[in-house]
Amino acid sequence: MGLTLYQKMRDAHEVRRFKDGSSLIYIDRIMLHERTGSIALSNMIDEGRGIMAPEMVFSTIDHIVDTRPGRPGGTRMPGGQVFIDEMRRTTGELGLRLFGTDDARQGIVHVIAPEQGIALPGITMVCPDSHTCTLGGVGALAWGIGSTDCEHALATRTLRIASHRQMRIRLEGVRPGWLTAKDIIIHLICRFGAGFGAGHVIEFAGPVVEGMEVEERLTLCNMGVEFAAFTALVAPDRKTLDYVRGRAFAPRAEDVPEAEVQWMALASDADAVFDRDIAVDVSGIAPTVSWGTSPEHATPVDGLLPGEPGLEAAYRYVGLEPGTPILGQPIDGAFIGSCTNSRLSDLRRAADLLRGRMVPASVRAVCAPGSTAVKRAAEAEGLDAIFRDAGFEWHEAGCAFCFYAGGETFAPGARVVSSTNRNFEGRQGPGVRTHIASPETVAWSAVNGRISDVREVLL
Ligand SMILES: CC(C)[C@H](C(=O)O)[C@@H](O)C(=O)O
Ligand code: SF4
C-alpha cells in the first residue's frame, strides 16, 4: 500500500512508534515568538534544562509589539513589555538567535520562516503558535504546539504526536484570475464546516494547487487550523524549489542538488489511501467573505446571509440580519496584514487596486506588512506610497492588529474588512466586527467604503 506525503515525512522523522499508533518524532527546527516563547524559555532556565540544539532555534518579536510607525512605545499591551524583555533576556542567556525589532529579519513568525529559508520542504518544525501549519505551503511538516510540548522539544528535539487521519482536498477546474487562495480556503471552511479537519492532516493537491504560487499555498495552509486540522501540507514541486533556493537558512549552494532530489520525491504515492479524498471544482467559487464570528460563517460576496437556527448570537454581535446581502454593507475599517496575507505578493495585488484611488475619510485603513523584509521590499518598489496616497496607514511588521494584543485596534463596534484568519468576538479588539476576506476584497471595499465585489474591477 502506498504512503501519503504526510506518512512519508513522519516516517522519515520517526524515532519510535508506540503501541497506540502515536510516534516520537525528531524535530528539525523550532521557532519562537515573545508571547509564548518567552514563557517556555524562562521555564527552561528556571528548571535548569539545556537546549538540545540551540542552532536550530529561531526566535522573533512579533506578537505584542506595536506596529505603529517607529513603534514609539514598544507595546501598548498592558503588562506586555515583560514578554519582550524576557524574550531578549532568555534568548541572550541561552545563546539563541533572536530577530528582534531592530533586526532586518524581524517579522511575523510564519512570514519570516519561509522568507528566511527556515521552513524547508521535508523538515519537521514546531512553534508554540497555532498557525505554524502555514509552513506546509513550502512542504514542511509543521504544526503548532503548547508551551509544555515546546519545552519538551527544546530539551529533547523530539515530540510525541498522535496517529492522524489523512485527508486530501484536490482543487480542480478553471480558476478565474480574481479568485484568490483566501477565497478558496474560506469557501472550503464554510462549505464543510470549521470542525471538518479535526484529527486530520490535510494535503491540498490537484491542478489548481499546482498552479498556485508558493505564497498562495502558504495562505491556503495558514487556515488549516481554522479547519481544525492537525496541520496542512502541499507537496513540494519546481516552484517550491525555486522559492527556497538561496534563502538565508536554506541549504548551501553545494548541497542544493542533493536536497532538491530528496524534496522532489516528497509526494503521496498514486495508491496512497486517504480517510477522506475530496475533489472540489473551484470554477464556481465567488469572492468569499465572512459575515459572523467563525470562519465558517461565510458567504459568497454577492450572496444573502443564511438564516439557520443557532446563528442568533453571531448575528447579534455583528449587527446584521439573515436574508440580507453582505454586499454594500458600509465599513469603518480595513486591514491588510497577518500571517495569512501580508507577503509581498499580497501587498502588490492590493496596491494594484489602490493605485490612483482614495479611501473615504469614514474608513480607517491600515496595512502592516508581514515582515521588515516585506516592508522594505514594498518600499523599494513604491508600494508604501500607493498605500499612503490611498489613505492607508503604513505600519511596521507585526501581529498586533490581527489579534488585539491589547493596544492596536479599531473603534468598538467598527465593521472591519480584514485579510486576517480569525473573526471571533473581540478578535481585533472589543466590539470590533471582523469580516475576513482576501487582500483584494479588503482594498476594493476600502476604497468604496462598503463591502465590495472585486469582480467589478478585476473581471
Ligand atoms: C498568541 C498565539 C499563541 C496565538 C496562536 O496560537 O494562534 C496567536 O498567534 C493567534 O493567532 O491567536
Ligand atoms: S498574524 Fe495573527 S494569526 Fe498570525 S500568528 Fe500573528 S496573531 Fe496569530
TrEMBL record:
Pathway: Amino-acid biosynthesis; L-leucine biosynthesis; L-leucine from 3-methyl-2-oxobutanoate: step 2/4. It catalyses: (2R,3S)-3-isopropylmalate = (2S)-2-isopropylmalate. PROSITE patterns: ACONITASE_1. It holds the Pfam family Aconitase. Residues 9-449 form the Aconitase/3-isopropylmalate dehydratase large subunit alpha/beta/alpha domain. Keywords: 4Fe-4S, Amino-acid biosynthesis, Branched-chain amino acid biosynthesis, Iron, Iron-sulfur, Leucine biosynthesis, Lyase, Metal-binding. It comes from the Bacteria. GO terms for biological process: L-leucine biosynthetic process. Transmembrane segments: none annotated. One of its GO terms (molecular function) is metal ion binding. It is an enzyme of class 4 (lyase). Its EC number is 4.2.1.33. Its cofactor is [4Fe-4S] cluster. PANTHER family: 3-ISOPROPYLMALATE DEHYDRATASE, HOMOACONITASE, MITOCHONDRIAL-RELATED. Heterodimer of LeuC and LeuD. Catalyzes the isomerization between 2-isopropylmalate and 3-isopropylmalate, via the formation of 2-isopropylmaleate. This is 3-isopropylmalate dehydratase.
